[in-house]
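quick one, 695 residues, struct below
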Amino acid sequence: MYKSFSMELAGRTLSVDVGRVAAQANGAAFMHYGDTVVLSTATASDKPREGIDFFPLSVEYEEKLYAVGKIPGGFIKREGKASDNAILTSRVIDRPMRPLFPKDYRNDVTLNNLVMCVDQDCSPELTAMLGSAIATAISDIPFDGPTASTMVGMVDGELVFNPTSAQREKSTLSLTVASTKEKVIMIEAGAAELPEDKMIEAIFAAHELNQKVIAFIETIVAECGKPKHDYIKCDTPADLYEDMVAFITPEGMEEAVFTDVKQVREENIRAITDKLVERYQETHPEWLPLLGEAIYKFQKKTVRKMILKDKKRPDGRDINQIRHLAAEVDILPRTHGSAMFTRGQTQVLTITTLGALAEIQKLDGIDENEKTKRYMHHYNFPSYSVGETRPSRGPGRREIGHGALAEKALVPVLPSEEEFPYAIRTVSEVLESNGSTSQGSICASTLSLMAAGVPIKSMVAGISVGLVTGDTDDDYIILTDIQGLEDFFGDMDFKVAGTHKGITAIQMDIKIHGLTREIIEKAIYRTKEARTYILNDIMAPCISEPRTEVGPYSPKIVQIKIDPTKIGDVVGQRGKTINAIIELTGVKIDITDDGSVSVCGVDSESIQKAIKLIQTITTDFVEGQIFEGKVVSIKEFGAFLEFAPGKEGMVHISKISKERIDKVEDVLSLGDIVKVVCLGKDKMGRISFSIKDVK
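---
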């Protein structure tokens, strides 16, 4: 017998079946939200994985196309690698869950979410977030939960919770908030320049709703939860740590990490490691495999003590001071747009490419609202950016996540298709990294888009703030513009992007059990202060507004309107006519069902030639119109001219010359280009032309 639990959540029924399926998993929740069905499971290995110094958590979100009644395309006809949406959802599920597992837990844990049925009004992503929290909470896996998650939209200025498909289409806010019983533990947001106070209001409205969901989950745990199992704790032996600290000394470690040059710091730590290896090689060889984690622990305590107690940052900056900034545009001479943004030892070069609307990305997923993507932002993080050597294996989850964050930040300021009929791609190449590369890519992308002549509505900048906490909620320090070491050893990476008007994107990663309202408010307003400085003092002096025209190497796009009933004439049988125009002029042509025609090419003359041909094909051919045509056939009674691909008319022999001629060949040859005037249609319904009557 299985047990079923249900509650009303944002006007729809959320129900959870426990014990109905997947009984061999450590925990399983068969989730129903409306007609959306997701199976969430939590499993853990019996023993810790040997030779690792981290918690091995894997989160999977599997989209099955049968969930929306689709058969996968291609020859294989089964789902392939995870979509970007699936990867991003896995990351959103991971972020609030990971901090709640024991820090010294080394057993492999997998949280799997199988999307089996989708009701477009009930988000499968949200259902999976709740399912993972429930499956883990009722399992025997050590976990300091539960958590709950809520999505928030804004329609006509009003907040809506877990918005329906129609509401998501109109919403100017896409916010996901995860909470524990006391605090907010994860924030992910995209917004149309939402003011800071409104964003804070939305976050804590979601947090309030999360408390009702947590109370519901606690009833499930009370009735179905398993006792948590014991595990082998993996910690640095006390005698090793004490001996190491006495030998190196806290002052020695502080001196090693206190530098603004990442390479110097790393060399200092290597030197300390070599000393310790030499010290323990003979006396305590069993300690050598544990040295890495012990040194990490020593560094972490040193850095946190310096910041929290001594108010000193490793590179000597003030708590709210930003590293040295620099911005440049037109780094690459022939790309459509390029810009480089440097913040300390973080450097990002973004390249903009413009294309015809036919080049927009087509999406084949389970969200029926998302079928295409006009703006694409890709982010690359090569190993040389951190001085390492490893082969490139394509973008990983982190790179896809950072690219999506920058894309989310910039979408609200992009021009509409009507204003700027281009597909747009930006690629951020990380050239050097020491923290906050995702925010550097937002700044570089804004500059690159402006340099490319994309008429964005406002400049967008991004900044990240960090956090170091003490033993109480009141004991903390917020750090502006965290570098890699402060992110590594700190408690928070709070990324916020936006314009002067408001926020366009947020991503919050933390390593502790949540944040108070006071910390969140201070962090958001600190980013506003830093963002204003970057926009005014660094980006605006580099390029203050988008260029009025696209560059010389960019494609030019001209749009015209034709009668929708004439689209077939332009396309021709099996695309023969439109392909002939493309071959003749070298342009790209896109036609929509409403008769909008976009002609794209690098050469303006070719574009105008193609437009003239299209207009000729779609004209109603009234008497007196002047055309230019090519002689394609000669008969005894006259000549046939092609005046546009697939369009021909006839010049009778009597209309060729003012003087009488015996043969058409005496005046015309195949391939001749001649001007003609339209005489209307002849008795056979053919378009009739005259050469001799052209004025």
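The first strand starts at residue 3 and ends at 9.
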